[in-house]
Write a structure and sequence with these properties.
Largest sheet: 4 strands, mixed
Strand content: 5-15%
Helix content: 55-70%
Number of domains: 2
Number of strands: 4
Number of helices: 8
Distance between the termini: 18 Å
Radius of gyration: 25 Å
CATH superfamily of the largest domain: Cation efflux protein transmembrane domain
Order of helices and strands: EHHHHHHHEEHE
CATH class of the largest domain: Mainly Alpha
Strand order of the largest sheet: 1-4-3-2
Shape: elongated
Amino acid sequence: MRHTKGMQSAEPGGVSAQKENPDYERTAMRASKTSIAANLILTIFKLLAGLIARSGAMISDAVHSASDVFSTIVVIVGIRIASKASDREHPYGHERLECAASIVLATILAVTGLGIGYSAASKILGRDAQLAVPGVLALIAAAVSIAVKEGMYWYTRYYAKKLDSGALMADAWHHRSDALSSVGALAGIAGARMGFPILDPAASLLICIFIEKAAYDIFLDAVDKMVDKACDDEVEEQLRACAMAQRDVLGVDLLHTRVFANKIYVDIEIRVDGEKKLIEAHGVAESVHDAIERDFPKVKHIMVHVNPA
C-alpha cells in the first residue's frame, strides 16, 4: 500500500513520497554566474593594480581571486548534477554529489589557507626577499577587494541559506577567505609604506587560521550529510508530534531519519486500530504522509508503515 509523488513504485504496507525542487538549480546557477562575473572583474583589477603599484601582495591576492572562479565552476557542476531528477539507476536522486562538490571546495580552501600561512611564515623567518614598497594604487585595490568580496560573501550566503545548499555555502566562505586575504594585503601594504613590513606576514598567519577553520567546518558538514546521519532530536520530536496529531494514529512505534545531502528521508511506523479496514488504515497512513510533507519542506522521501494496535 503506497501513495507516491514524484517517483512511481509500489510496496505493500506503506505510504511514501519523494519531492523535487525545480527552482533549485535555476536559482543556484544565477547566484554562481554572478559570482564568476564579479571574480573575473576583480581578478583583472587586482592584477593590474599589483603590477602597476609593484605590490607582490596584491598580485598574490589576485591569484586568490582567480581561484574563486575555479571553485565556483566546481559548485556549478556539482549543483547541476545534484539537481538531476531521480531515475531508474538512482531512485533516491543525485543530491550527494553536491556534498562531493563541498568537499572539493573545502580542500581548495584548506590548500589556499596553507599556502597563505607558508608564505607568511617564510617572510617572518626571512626566507623571502623583502618586497618593494608598493604604490598607493595597491591600497585602493585592497580596499575595493575587501568591500566587493565581503558583499559577495553575504550575497552567496543568502542564496545558500535560502536553498540550504552546502556547496553554495562553501563558495560563500571562499569569498570570505578572499576578503580576509585582502585585509592582510591591505595591512601589509600599509605597513610596508609606513616602514613595518612584518605586519603583512603576521596578518596573513592569522588569516590562515580563519581559513582553515572554515574549511574544516565545511568538510565536516559535507561528510555528515554523506554518511546518512540522523536528524537532531528536536526535528525527530517534531516529526513524531506531527504524526501523532493525525486522526486515528494511536502511537509511533518506530521513527528513523537520515540526512541525504540537504534533504531528509523518513521511515515511520504508526499504530492504528487493528479492526479497521485496509482502505481506512491506508487513509490514516496517507494523512500522516501528507502532514509531514506539508510541514517539513526538506523531507524528500517518506515511508509510512502501519502496525495493528
